[in-house]
Specification:
single chain; about 400 residues; alpha/beta; seven-stranded mixed beta sheet; 13 helices; 19 strands; about 25% strand; globular
Length: about 400
Amino acid sequence: MTPTGLSTDVSTTGKRSVLISGASISGPALAYWLHRSGWAVTVVEKAGALRDGGYPIDIRGTAIEVVRRMGILPHLRDAHIDMRRCTFLDADGGEVASVSPHAVVGSVEGQDLEVRRGDLAAHLHAMVRDDVEFLFGDSIDTLDQSRQEVDVTFHSGHQRTFDLVVGADGMHSHTRASLFGPEEQFHRYLGYCFALFTMPNTFGLSHELMMWNTPGKAAALYAVGDNDEVHAFLNFHRPEPPSDALRDPKAQRDLVATTFAGAGWEVPHMVDAMYDADDLFFDTAGQIRMPHWSSGRVALVGDAAYAPSFLTGQGSSLALVGAYMLANALAANRDHTAAFAAYERDLRDFVAMNQALVDNGAATLFPTTVRALEQRNTMLRGLDTLPSAPARPAHSALVLPEFAPMP
């Protein structure tokens, strides 16, 4: 366990104390707002250090207002990935259409942002690292709640006591599993598996995405700048999740290779690069849907509570908005039960609207039949002659309340 930032003895500070599990997006964002409202905050992260790199993520609509209120909007605008073109290819690598990215994803040009995940994480960490205790290389092992506090035993063997605990530890949240039960109870599989990794940019790509499709399969190369690496993405439809491969990296690679055997364009080179990649991330497209986001003195935020899936493009935005709304509820209500109830009441419709995007055409970039692929290609050709689509209402449907003063 490697502590950084303030070393906080919660028994003597007199402040309410909270442990946040996870130092990606929602965790540090929540830490910022809770520290601002007077909490003694500790963040535990199983990784040994802050994760850099990572694939590009979107910040849209209401989430833009969150980062503006945090004071990091100018920095994120500087880090904005200026993607200029999306080119779609057929089975042989021939061009189907080349369109503006805003016309495809429904973002608002000049307002919404796309940044590297690592850039956003680094800015959030920088906001709180001098005010918040970080425990890297450790994780929560057990939670023991009473009416007054939560006793936490860490994987390292250390034991601490906190007033509240928040799980911000992602779709496969250990906090959620230990408190609410197995992930299978809350996971909604959306019919796709995907592999993400980086590979050499031998294609001369710059500020653009190229996507190859056949029914049920997609391969994409994404150059976020003039870098010598590109993000590679291999996505495929599968009626049932490959449970046997989810925890076996070799099985994951073999499954992808088998699925894309015989594919055209640059796909064989991408599969070869996948075997050499040291940053492969393999998962299924899915959502977390829960009837409640809290139990006793423990709550969940971000993907741990309401992952919308990459198909919506709203995971990071929901994480930022959810962190704000949870912190605001805790600032406005001294009683955590009332705070958690307000958090759920005020955020649930926004979450539901964003998760519903997958039922309203959010997966149209990945058609699974010949007919659906033809329809999508016709739509893409038409986009090139139309103005950018307006922002989806789900992105901005929630108006943020002013942050509550300390009770």
